[in-house]
Amino acid sequence: MSSLEISALCKRYGPAVALDGVSLTAGQGELVSLLGPSGCGKTTALRCIAGFIDPDDGDIRANGVSILATPSSKRDFGVVFQNYALFPHLNVAENVGYGLLFRKGSKAERERRVREVLEQVQLVGLEHRLPRELSGGQQQRVALARALVIQPRLLLLDEPLANLDARLRDDVRWLIRDVQQASRTTAFYVTHDQAEAMAISDKIAVMKNGKVAQFASPREIYQRPAERYVASFTGEANFLAAEVERALGGGLFRVRAGGATLDVRGAGPFAGSAVLLARPESLAIVTDGTGQLEGRVVKSVFLGAVQHCEVVLRDGASVRLGTPPDRPLPADGTVSVRLDVDRTWLMPDAVP
Amino acid sequence: MTRRLPRLALGLPAVLLLLVFLILPYAEMITMSFRTSQPGTMHGAGFTADHYRNVMSGGLYLGALARSLLLALFITLACLVVSYPIAWHLSRASGRKALLLYACVASPLMIGVLIRNFGWMIIVNVDGPLNRVLLSLGLIDRPLRLLFTQGLVALALVHVFTPFMVLPINNALRNINPAVIEASRSLGASRFATFWKVILPLSFPGIQPGLILVFVLATAAYVTPALLGGQMVTMMPTLVVQTLVGTFDWPLGATLAVVMATAALIAVVVFSLATQRLMERVRA
């Protein structure tokens, strides 16, 4: 159990830059997700932390002490691999107990500890099975148990749910969160799935081309993204081109967007043009005259609990939103759209 | 039925080949081993088990058999020790480097058996390049007499059998998921512990066939021991050839050959049975 601090981490493979000055911190007991598309450097960062590769530049400190000179076998970090990487020739109990062979403790203590962890991940009764005799979800549990049994200072998870089907994914995700919370283990979690990252993390680092685009809480990442890339990677997003007229103070800005003048929140300063983020849930089709925007429904899809609509606004921008499925849309498609300005966010339109 | 026929036809050449070149010759040899000897002809009229009694009670034959099997065992183990690091490097290499390494590994097989052994004779000669280099470096005072020794035979056989050990082990090592090695390290295992507990067992699907191949080849090796070993020590294959060609006693020669093949087969079967559990665990 420890805190981890990564500063200005760089890694190049020939001309390709995998990590370009990544800085992150994880406080004790926190779960930090590295979120991004494939090739963004998230796995490289995790492998640097684990000690499988050496960064070209930068530092990694655990509890304030640099660990770069420490081989992975001495770091005391539990790693859960994407393909589980179980020892195929060892049964479940031997796989889980493997890390204890290199630590103090009698055989009886080791067996007790293995049983404890197997109980934690609900695998009791499968001790003598070989990995190939287990389902994907069970293998993932063994991988988790094997990493947890050594009571690691840090838990590193590399896309642990990528190979599971959707239903299992939920179960194992909650299991990971539960055991991580119960043991108060600091954890890094690599994923490309924003919903997974949202659900499980204390903090999320959204990565882009080897850099951290934003590092903040899930709520902050979703509601107050630093840039368009972060907003679109963390969920359904509408972007409206906005002309900033003036700052009103207190984080409020008066902008022209979607053919209306709006007072919205943002983290300026802005000069001239900006981008207004309006998540689908901040938009609603209204008939009571409170809508600030006018538009025409060009597409609608009935999805059961909700009806998805695409609306082209007067200035030509198109937005997606949801409406209650039982409310009929006007025959000519002309609608009034209300924008909940408290749930919008103004962002710079280009990031240096 | 018409659909089945082509499949049967596909298997036919292999069956024929086995029948003509394996089963029939062995049947013929086993039959020959029970015939009576008669000087001047290939064999006499009747059948007898005397040759087996003779071979099993004779210290000459059993001694040669034991020596052959022991030498083969030693060569096999030496081959494993030499080959494993080579296989490891080969399994980590890719592209041109891998191609070059493959060529080096296969090189002993690219030269005919006679040329290769004459090469050894030239190199280890009392007046040969090896002795000259060692003398000029001051490592030895007098030239080493290596020719016609068991040591040289073993060295030459290890050299030529190395590819049969390296290639299957290389294959097995390539099949190990690299993340498994990382997992072992991250759980606290040293490099040595990782090798011993993970890499070695997981490469056993390559080690087992390598050991069997080299052992069988080494047991039956004739040309190299005959050329480099001289007449000092009698090996089983040498005895077989002497009996067949020298004294022209085909029934006895056949008996010796059957005994030798059976001994090698028993060794292989015992080894396979002993390692069966491990193999079942590590098979991919």
Describe what you observe in this structure.
The complex is a heterodimer of chains A (352) and B (284). Chain A folds into two domains: 4-230, Rossmann fold; 236-348, Nucleic acid-binding proteins (OB fold (Dihydrolipoamide Acetyltransferase, E2P)), CATH 2.40.50. In chain A, 22% of the residues lie in helices and 37% in strands. Chain A has eight helices and 20 strands. A six-stranded mixed sheet of chain A has the order 6-7-8-3-9-10, with helices on both faces. A five-stranded antiparallel sheet of chain A has the order 13-12-11-14-20. The radius of gyration of chain A is 24 Å and the shape is elongated. The relative contact order of chain A is 0.12. The model of chain A has no long low-confidence stretch (mean pLDDT 90). Chain B has 284 residues and is an all-alpha fold. Chain B has a single domain (47-282), classed as MetI-like (MetI-like fold, Orthogonal Bundle). Chain B has 14 helices and no strands. Chain A binds chain B through residues 50-52, 71-79, 81-83, 85-89, 98-99, 101-103, 130, 146-147, 150, and chain B through 177, 179-180, 182-190, 193, 197-198, 201-202, 278, 281-282, 284. Chain A: One of its GO terms (biological process) is quaternary ammonium group transport.
Quick summary:
Chain A has about 350 residues and is α+β, with helices and mostly antiparallel strands. Chain A has eight helices and 20 strands. Chain A is elongated.
